[in-house]
Specification:
disordered N terminus, four-stranded antiparallel beta sheet, elongated, electron transport, Immunoglobulin-like, alpha+beta, binds iron/sulfur cluster
């Protein structure tokens, strides 16, 4: 392991520094040799330098929180079962006290709509915050880079190691890194599969090497994807594969809080001695140390303006603040603020006020309405579903006792976690009676979180009805929990033969 040399704050003479160029998506050249060197270093393979500061601590906190949830959630138990399990084989989704069936796909669709609106809202307010702090690609890249730094050292040590010819030492270091990466990737892949297949059984199957072929396949697939994306692809995923990077520009405007270089304050940039009064010398606050480029995980220069490759991680904010501290200048040369704040010289409180603009209010209102509707609908969800299927083989017939009989099948789904005792009744025709075909009763038991197909017969006295179809209603009533009653009324038709 090795550490970085002390920060050189006087890298190039001021005279060699070009004037600041307006923000552009593609850097158009004209940079100092020092920055060109830094950029050529990072544009091949990117070797981000480690950084500490407020936003680095936030990123670590988000890694810890998201991973505690991701790795821990499948091990939580609820009512003697896995609390969160998307059981594809049984076609049931367990989410704590809720059991969703394929018929509940509307809730998943609404959840996607909520996620989309939340993304629009947060992007309109604060750019790619999700990318910088909570996106799995960023989070796993952070974890893998942390391992890499612990084993190979910081930026310069990694560059030197990669430039060295292969030796036993290099092989040992690289093998150690990949061993730890593969362990993390394997754990991540296994955990991911544990959301779709009971994780305790999965753990036992893994120990005894008795998993099924599909479990092996998906586990290896996700482990490989994690290893490849976080170990090798890294920023390329954010730059070239992520669609969000491409369409974020339509959601961001001049009032969005994004990581911004204050060119008014920073230009003209250039190296200088701490002892000179740079303002008197006609210089801006940027000392052109290129550290903001060296720490950037996507290898861009934020001084070129907002670029779609910027994931808003704030690493350049942290490092620039340390430079400003060393130079005894005010912090915030690079900061989270809006483009308008820089061009119009707005204060942070004025910028914050402008956050509440029409598009943000529209997104917030829509999101609030959809979330309220979603929660209300879930809270008042009827846990009993009944579908009436007419028996097409026996439309209607006269049976002993002078009765007309129709046969139906009731497809009953109990989505609650309590067994249901249900009472059946039929109305719409005088003296209509309903009984289960197997047991001859008007009550049915449906176990917790299960479904049942119940054949029933419905009878009415012959001679009281005209031949043809008569509309009827089949009612199912039951209780679940301590005192909640469920009722489902389904329409069907009763056929009277000639
Ligand atoms: S913006 Fe800050 S970190 Fe970047 S080169 Fe200028 S002084 Fe250095
Ligand atoms: S420019 Fe700054 S905020 Fe954007 S990705 Fe690079 S380091 Fe992160």
């Amino acid at each position: 392991m090795s550490s970085e040399p002390p920060v050189d704050l006087n890298p190039v003479p001021a005279a060699a520094v070009p004037a600041w160029q307006p923000p552009r998506v593609t850097p158009a050249g004209g940079k100092s040799p020092h920055v060109e060197k830094a950029l050529s270093d990072v544009r091949g393979k990117i070797y981000p330098r480690s950084v500490s500061g407020l936003f680095a601590r936030w990123r670590v906190a988000m890694v810890v929180i998201t991973q505690l949830i991701f790795y821990g959630l499948p091990w939580l138990q609820w009512n003697d079962r896995q609390a969160v399990l998307f059981d594809l084989a049984a076609r049931k989704f367990y989410i704590f006290g809720m059991v969703l069936w394929p018929q509940d796909v509307i809730y998943l669709a609404v959840l996607l709509v909520i996620s989309a609106f939340a993304l629009f809202l947060f992007t309109a307010m604060a750019g790619r915050l999700f990318c910088g702090y909570a996106c799995p690609q960023t989070v796993y890249t952070e974890i893998f880079m942390w391992v890499e730094r612990r084993i190979e050292g910081d930026r310069l040590a990694r560059i030197r190691l990669d430039e060295q010819p292969w030796s036993l030492r290099k092989l040992r270091i690289k093998a150690s890194k990949h061993f730890v990466w593969i362990l993390i990737a394997w754990w991540t892949g296994s955990t991911f599969i544990g959301y779709f297949s009971p994780i305790r059984e999965l753990g036992m199957g893994l120990l005894t090497l008795s998993l099924g072929p599909w479990q092996w396949f998906w586990m290896v697939f996700y482990a490989f994807a994690t290893w490849g994306n976080a170990g090798f692809m890294r920023e390329a995923v954010c730059k070239y594969m992520c669609p969000y990077a491409r369409f974020q520009s339509v959601m961001v405007d001049d009032d969005t809080f994004v990581v911004t270089y204050d060119h008014v304050r920073g230009e003209p940039r250039g190296g200088r001695s701490r002892r000179i009064d740079h303002k008197e010398a006609g210089m801006g606050d940027c000392v052109d140390c290129s550290l903001c480029v060296q720490v950037c995980p996507t290898g861009i220069d934020i001084r070129d303006g907002l670029q779609y490759m910027c994931i808003g991680c704030g690493a350049c904010v942290d490092v620039c603040d340390t430079v400003m501290d060393k130079m005894d200048y005010d912090r915030g040369l690079i900061r989270y603020t809006s483009g308008r704040a820089i061009t119009d010289g707005l204060s942070q409180s004025q910028v914050r006020k402008r956050l509440l603009r029409p598009r943000v209010l529209v997104y917030t209102s829509l999101l609030a309405i959809i979330v309220a509707g979603f929660v209300f609908s879930l809270a008042t969800r009827n846990p009993l579903r009944v579908d009436v299927i007419r028996d097409r083989g026996v439309l209607g017939r006269e049976v002993a006792g002078g009765m007309i009989e129709n046969v139906y099948r009731l497809q009953m789904i109990n989505t609650s976690e309590s067994p249901l005792t249900l009472k059946l009744s039929a109305t719409g025709v005088p003296e209509l009676a309903i009984l289960t075909a197997d047991e001859g009763t008007d009550t049915v038991q449906v176990d917790a979180a299960s479904n049942r197909l119940v054949p029933v017969v419905v009878r009415a006295p012959a001679g009281t009805l005209t031949p043809g179809l008569h509309e009827i209603e089949l009612t199912t009533v039951g209780n679940y929990g301590s005192d909640r009653e469920v009722t489902v009324v389904e329409r069907s038709s009763f056929f009277v033969p000639r």
